[in-house]
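User: I'm putting together notes for a lab meeting next week and I want to include a structural view of one of the chains we've been expressing. I don't have a solved structure, so I'd like a prediction I can at least talk through. The sequence is below, exactly as it appears in our construct file.
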Amino acid sequence: MKKRFLAIVMLAIMALVVSACGTSSGGGGSDAEKKELRVVTDAAYAPFEYMDGDKIVGFDIDFLKAVAKEAGYELKIENVGWDPIFVEIKSKRADLAVSSISINDERKQTYDFSLPYFLSTNKILVREDSDIKSAADLKGKVVAVQNGTTGQAAMDKLLGKNNEDIKKFDNNNLAIMEMLSGGADAVVADNGVVEVYAKNNPNEKLKVIEDSDSFEAEYYGILFPKGTDLKADFDKAIKKIVENGTYEKIYQEWFGQDPNMEMLKAEQEASE
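Assistant: Thanks for the context. Below is the predicted structure for the 272-residue chain, given as structure tokens.
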């Protein structure tokens, strides 16, 4: 009887130990099992996000994957187009968006942004023989822009809202094609877009014009639904990959130069 009692006690103790281990393992397993997040983008903005066959690639994509890995999340990235990005995020059908989205006060009223991760400014793309030398020279010219971007906002401010000389397109590729076909005199878009396009298409004989007096520096951020809990996790991960050199490595791979880390870190500190 005593042996049987001891056996029962031992079995009970073992059950408790296994249960405790199971609880511990289950908790760790829960942490280890990364939650999949739905990400939306407009994959027509090389080199930041674009289609390579059936894959979405680009600087933003590699950056976001590094951040998500650091934060402990899996990603499901979908190409939905520019305008639908904001609908998907506002309705909370998507968890976040990355698509070279400039942080501004108007957008911040409706959405949350991560810490800034990319320093950008609008620049002007023209043919090499163009007489355009600054933003002021765009007055009286036909300018192609992507609809709903800060490039369009800059042209609305410079040339007047609803000016017929501002041609608006669904993406920058179409805007550039319009200029190359003679339908526009210039394209105004983010520096990363026009610089890489001019570099990768030398036969087109294009040049990029910088006008820092007319175009203010802006920063991209990851877009979230208002009030999301994800922002804190992603901000922490962004700071980590900036500190450990991962960010610089990704930047160098896509742009062939070093990022201005001093300005980026200062802007991140100011945004906290």
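A couple of points you could mention at the meeting. The first strand starts at residue 35 and ends at 41. Confidence is low (pLDDT under 50) at residues 1-32.

User: Perfect, that's what I needed.
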